[in-house]
Amino acid sequence: MINEQKLQISSLETVELTRRPRRNRKSAAIRELVQETRLHPSYFVSPLFLMDGENKKHEIKGMPGVFRLSIDLALKECIELYQVGVRGVDLFTLVADDKKDARGSEAIRVGNLLQRATKAIKSEIPELCVMVDVALDPFTDHGHDGVIDNEGNILNDETLAVLGVMSALAADAGADIIAPSDMMDGRVGYIRRLLDRHDFSHVSILSYAVKYASSFYGPFRNALNSAPKFGDKKTYQMNPANFREAMLECSLDEWEGADMLMVKPALPYLDILTKIREASDLPLAAYHVSGEYAMIMAAAQNGWVDADRVLMESMLSIKRAGANFILTYGAKRAAELSR
Ligand code: PBG
Which of 23, 48, 234, 327 matches a 20 to 30 Å C-alpha distance to 212? Predict the structure, then answer.
């Protein structure tokens, strides 16, 4: 039997509480004085899903409040984003099934939706930074990020040629930043050289340097109808178990000429973010991906968490871990809440 009296310390003085961290939390004013990390609207970048047509707005399954937009409505969205302080968008396009083929030809068709949207946004709001996601998966009928051979292997160097043309066309349409998300080897160097040779040396490269083969991309693939039709992406996207591999990817991309690096997804990989923050002096982005957003919204819809608070706590944590800016589907809301 436990003797309760024996469990108590006879006099409080035997425990000298000279250090009381709670003093620094005793009022809102003091808490603000000692706050180490703050959010600002300019930290948020909004991914945008574009679709053909006019006055089109389709909500995406699993992503409440996120829509596929036709260009005219996307322009309105960009203006609203800019007004609340968001300074960047990252563009993705929905490609109709009959335009998809094994090589992703639509990705390099002059005048495709991606280029038209880039042009339209840059002429409507030149101040807004336009990033273009460069990868073939929304354009291929098999859903992989690269060109494949007869056995279904993803061909690295053949894919680079297509990514290069796609990047140059995006640059020509006015993109400020090319953001390759495919994880092929050597793509940053290849795209950098190609851009430089075609007078696009002013166009930046934000490398999705550390992109894991994650199960958190589900709602995104739903949005673009881009899930792989066979196999998985593990021969090019990274093993979630690995950290040193992330360091290697970052140093290669830095050496190949990336202007900025990205870690993706965000919350499950904050340790990676922090380590890369320490190892590289390049600006660092984090992609708070579709599944991360979906989990917040689903729990909130059930009344289990408060969406705004959980979103902002997530953003603060990503920032604290070392991100300079964050791609998130909650960009507009996060900007509104951090003004
Ligand atoms: C395209 C791409 C993907 C995402 C961003 N760019 C999907 C994938 O690689 O399978 C995922 C983004 C998200 O889940 O929000 N390569």
Answer: 48
Residue-level pLDDT at 274: 98
Nearest to 137 by CA among 227, 69, 268, 67: 227
Query: Nearest CA to 54 among 76, 31, 85, 35?
Result: 76
- Is 284 domain-assigned? yes
Identity at 191, one-letter amino acid code: I
Residue of the CA atom closest to atom 6 of ligand 1: 181
Cβ atoms 64, 56 nearer than 8 A = no
Say how far apart CA 323 and CA 318 lie, in whole Å: 6
Q: Point out the ligand 1 atom lying closest to the alpha carbon of residue 224.
A: 7
Q: How far apart are CA 280 and CA 305, in angstroms?
A: 36
Is the C-beta atom of 290 inside 6 A of ligand 1? yes
What mean pLDDT do residues 179-195 have?
Answer: 98
Any domain includes 246: yes
In angstroms, the CA 339 to CA 331 distance is 12
Q: How far is the CA of 3 from the centre of ligand 1 (A)?
A: 60
At residue 164, the pLDDT reads 98
**Nearest Cα residue to 289 out of 236, 234, 217, 181:** 217
Domain containing residue 206: 39-338
**Residue 271 near residue 244 (C-beta atoms within 8 A):** no
pLDDT at res. 3: 76
Q: Which of 233, 264, 275, 319 is catalytic?
A: 264
- CATH number (domain holding residue 57): 3.20.20.70
Domain-located, residue 325? yes
Q: Is residue 241 part of a domain?
A: yes
Is 56 marked active-site?
no
**Closest approach atom of ligand 1 to CA 227:** 10
Tokens representing 198 are: 């075609």
Mean pLDDT of 279-289: 98
The response to whether residue 133 sits with its C-beta less than 6 Å from ligand 1 reads: yes
Cβ atoms of residues 303 and 280 within 8 Å? no
Q: Are the beta carbons of 243 and 275 closer than 8 angstroms?
A: yes
70 lines ligand 1 (CB under 6 A): no
The count of domains in the chain is 1
